[in-house]
Design brief:
Among the domains are: about 15-115, 3-Layer(aba) Sandwich (Rossmann fold), CATH 3.40.50.300; about 130-145 and about 245-265 and about 275-380, 3-Layer(aba) Sandwich (Trna Endonuclease, Chain: A, domain 1), CATH 3.40.1350. The chain contains 15 helices and 13 strands. The protein has helices at about 25-30, 45-50, 55-60, 75-85, 100-110, 140-155, 160-165, 170-180, 185-190, 195-210, 215-225, 225-240, 270-275, 280-295, 345-350; strands spanning about 15, 35-40, 65, 90-95, 110-115, 245-250, 260-265, 305-310, 315-325, 325-330, 355-365, 370, 375-380. The strands form two sheets. An eight-stranded mixed sheet has the order 7-6-8-9-10-11-13-12, sandwiched between helices. A five-stranded parallel sheet has the order 2-3-4-1-5, with helices on both faces. Helix 3 crosses helix 4 (about 75-85) and helix 4 (about 75-85) runs parallel beside helix 5 (about 100-110). The two termini are about 20 Å apart.
Length: about 375
Amino acid sequence: MFERWLTIPTRRSCLIIGPRRSGKTTLLKHRYPEWPYATLDDLDNLDWAKRDPKGLISYLGQKAIIDEIQRLPMLTVAAKYAMDNENARFLMTGSSTLGLLDAAADSLAGRIDILSLPTACWGEELGGPTHSLLNDQAPLSQIKEANRRLSQAMTYGQFPEVIIQEKDDDRQEVLMNYRNTYFTRDLMQLSNIENLDGLLAVLQHLARSLGSHLDVSNFAREAGISHPTAKKYLNALHQGQLTFKLYGYQFGPAKRYIKAVKTYFADTGIIRSLNARVSAGQLLENFVLAEFEKRRRLGIIRADPFYYYKSAGGHEIDLVFEADDRVYAIEIKSTQRPSPRDVTSLAQFSDRLNRPVQRYLIYLGDEYRTLENVQLLPVSALFRGE
């Protein structure tokens, strides 16, 4: 077990959301080894919780870990009673937000902190962050080390059980097991999905269309399922924390959200588990965006949900977010030698915005430098960066 970058409040109860196998249970058992533990993956505990939720909560005492609470979201009502009347503190985990966040909001509003634990950030298993991703320069020796690790990181992802494996064959075996259980059958059970072939077809089409606008009609047609079913499956993947969305960014708060969204995998290991063929550019884009999304979920990057930008003329920026009264605009290019043409969209974006804009191009080289007043960041700056 390696130490994770998630900060857990010392006195308040909390609900930790994250995909299956992201390390939620291991983290809590490691930090709170003396606390009673119950998981609703255990059928006996689940049956007990259904029949006598107050009895199960009472049995656990004033401090306890309750795992996979998404299997019975209404257990939060019994937990609320114990918090209010018995000064109890619970650390709960959930692998799907389906029904869970609504139940938690209704019964635990103001009483708990809702946190996220994504899969590991790149380099997290080696220790704490070493530098600020957007403000510092990582040492050249660390950049070189990260370059040697980059291909493996992008290919197999950052699920904790995957990154501790020493051989590629073992990493692949773990991911294939995840695909056959947590990414499909477990998700089907939680979301009442019956068509495994349809779900796998949606996953494959999602991989092929990385970086493109999400068109549910295309997903339905490619997967051979109805439009409502395709929408249900995509929503299940999102609620299961296996994907995340970027909405279109427009100038002015009234126009910030547009209908078209882009969807990416929360970890590139999911792409590998599907044996999906994606381009080098698609894989790099998903990898970088997922690393930023992990830091947003951990609270390291304090920003509203991330966006992408596309102008009427077709100029696109891969990532846009607002933080510290600034707008951050980031392009991702699968090249070692960026040209002025690669930063054209960033320049045009800045010209239209009457606010300070921090502009970055993340690329495959190993030098920090500027190009047309755009800061070039090596992709390896993500390694142990916060």
